[in-house]
Design goal:
Blueprint lengths: L2 E7 L7 H11 L4 E7 L6 H7 L4 E4 L4 H7 L2 E2 L1 H6 L4 E5 L2 E5 L2 H8 L8 E5 L3 H12 L3 E6 L12 E4 L11 E4 L14 H8 L4 E4 L7 H8 L3 E3 L2 H15 L6 H8 L6
Parallel strand pairs: 1-2, 1-3, 4-6, 7-8, 7-10, 8-9, 10-11, 11-12
Antiparallel strand pairs: 3-5, 5-6
Helix pairs in contact: 1-9, 1-10, 5-6, 5-9, 9-10
The structure holds NADPH dihydro-nicotinamide-adenine-dinucleotide phosphate (NDP).
NADPH dihydro-nicotinamide-adenine-dinucleotide phosphate (NDP) binds next to helix 6 and helix 9.
Length: 263
C-alpha cells in the first residue's frame, strides 16, 4: 500500500521537501508519496496526522515546538533541544526526531581545522545546531540582535551587538538569522562583520537558494562560503532514512534527493 508523507508548516508553498522526497521515492522504487500541508494552528498537528493517515512528516516553521509536544516518543537529541522536524508513525504512535541539526553538522564537515564558531542569530535553528556543535566538541559563541532570545543559551558565551567584544578569532561564521531571506539586510552591523570575517576560515549561511548579502560580504574577503542547501539536503536524507526504516544507505538516498537542487 502506498504510504503518504507530508510537510506541515505555514507557509509551505515554497518548500523543496516534496520534490526531494518524491524524487527519492521514485528513484529507490519505494511506494510513497510526499505532499505539503499548510497548517495554521500547530496544536492541531497530532489530530491532522491521524486524520490524514500519514506515515511520516516533516515539520517546518513555525510548528517545530508543537511537533515536539505532539509525539509519544522522542529521540534523545530531540528531547534535549525541544524541537522536532521529523515524525514517523509506528504502530499508531508518533516518534519524533530533529534532523536539522545533524544536517548542519554534516554540511560543515568539509571545512577542516574548525574549532571556534560564531553564530549570528539565536532562533530555533541556532538552538538545535549550537547544541549539536557543542556536543561534537566545537566552541560556539552566540551573537544576537536582541537580548531576549539569549536567555535560552545559558551554557554558551553570548553577546548582543552592543555588548560584543571581538577578543577571539573565530574559524567559522554562520548566519543563523533570517536576515537576507526576504530583504537585503546583513545579520549584524557591518563593523562587527568586518572585524570577525577577516580572521575566519569560512562563512556559511543557513538560507539557501540565493546569495545573501552576508555571503556576498564574505566573498569580498575571499573566504570559502556555502549556503544552506547542503543542510537542507542532509536533514532530508536523514529524515528519509527514518521514513523508510533505514532501508537505504545515506549515499543511495542522497543520490536521488540532490537532483531536487538541479531542477
Ligand atoms: P527564528 O524566527 O527562530 O529566529 C530568527 C533569528 O534571526 C533571531 O535570532 C532574530 O533576532 C534574527 N533576525 C531576524 N531578522 C534579523 C535581522 N534583520 N537582523 C538581525 N537579526 C535578525 O528563525 P529560525 O531559527 O527558525 O530560522 C533562521 C533561518 O534559518 C531562516 O532564514 C531559515 O530559512 C533558515 N533555515 C534553514 C534550514 C536549512 O535546512 N537550510 C533549516 C531551518 C531554517 P532577534 O532575536 O533579535 O529577533
Amino acid at each position: 500500500m502506498k504510504q503518504l508523507f507530508t510537510i506541515f508548516g505555514n507557509p509551505v508553498s515554497h518548500s523543496k521537501s516534496p520534490l526531494m522526497h518524491n524524487l527519492s521515492f521514485k528513484g529507490l522504487n519505494y511506494n510513497g508519496c510526499y505532499t505539503r500541508y499548510r497548517l495554521e494552528d500547530g496544536s492541531k498537528l497530532r489530530d491532522k496526522f491521524f486524520e490524514l493517515n500519514i506515515a511520516g512528516a516533516n515539520i517546518t516553521v513555525p510548528h517545530k515546538e508543537e511537533a515536539f509536544r505532539a509525539c509519544d516518543y522522542l529521540d534523545e537529541f530531540a528531547k534535549k533541544v525541544g524541537a522536532v522536524n521529523t515524525i514517523v508513525k509506528r504502530d499508531g504512535k508518533l516518534y519524533g526526531y530533529n534532523t536539522d541539526a545533524l544536517g548542519f553538522l554534516k554540511a560543515i564537515e568539509e571545512f577542516k581545522d574548525i574549532k571556534r564558531v560564531l553564530f549570528l542569530g539565536a532562533g530555533g535553528t541556532a538552538q538545535s545546531t549550537s547544541t549539536i556543535l557543542k556536543d561534537a566538541g566545537y566552541s560556539v559563541t552566540i551573537l544576537n540582535r536582541s537580548a531576549k532570545r539569549l536567555e535560552q543559551y545559558k551554557e554558551f558565551e553570548t553577546y548582543t551587538f552592543q555588548s560584543f567584544k571581538n577578543i577571539k578569532k573565530y574559524d567559522l561564521i554562520v548566519n543563523m538569522t533570517s536576515a537576507g531571506l526576504e530583504d537585503n539586510s546583513l545579520p549584524c552591523p557591518i563593523e562587527i562583520l568586518d572585524s570577525v570575517i577577516k580572521d575566519a576560515k569560512a562563512c556559511i549561511d543557513v538560507i539557501y537558494g540565493k546569495e545573501t548579502p552576508f555571503l556576498k560580504f564574505a566573498k569580498k574577503y575571499n573566504k570559502s562560503t556555502k549556503d544552506g542547501s547542503d543542510m537542507l539536503l542532509y536533514q532530508g536524507v536523514i529524515a528519509f532514512g527514518h521514513f523508510t526504516n533505514n532501508k537505504f544507505s545515506f549515499k543511495e538516498i542522497e543520490n536521488y534527493m540532490k537532483k531536487a537542487f538541479y531542477i
